[in-house]
Design goal:
Elements lengths: L2 H20 L5 H19 L12
Length: 58
């Protein structure tokens, strides 16, 4: 799967958090925390390949 397709859900999540903060649907401190945490999770997981333990050995 291309990286751009893996990044789209993360981008949507960040955008929705920002919109929810603008419309005051979530508290400001929660929104600020999520705006920092969501990209960090994306960076940690988007380049993750298959787990080494699940690979078949030849």
């Amino acid at each position: 799967m291309p990286h751009i397709l893996r990044a789209l859900p993360w981008a949507a999540a960040s955008l929705l958090v920002a919109l929810a903060s603008i419309f005051e649907l979530i508290p400001e401190t929660t929104a600020q925390t999520l705006i920092i945490v969501i990209p960090a999770l994306m960076i940690a997981t988007i380049n993750a390949g298959p787990c080494a333990l699940r690979r078949r050995s030849a």
